[in-house]
Write a structure and sequence with these properties.
By secondary structure, the protein is mainly alpha-helical. Helix content is 95%, strand content 0%.
Amino acid sequence: MITTVTTITTVTTMMALGVTTSIGIAAVISLIFLLIIKQMAGAKGSDRFLRIARFVNVAIVPLLITFAVIVAVDLALILLV
């Protein structure tokens, strides 16, 4: 009985870590993609592209916060383990 509960808990924990890692990777890739779009749109110089560059900021700020949290958690895991 105890072995079954331990096995289920271990499998659940590993699945949660896998999902968390996938979400983190997707967030970082999205952040890189949006930063590239912002730089390219800002470099173009026309009003339309400058509006796009400002609009992309709406998505960049939360992704920067997410990136900071990912880095902080990884550093905490490295330093505490």
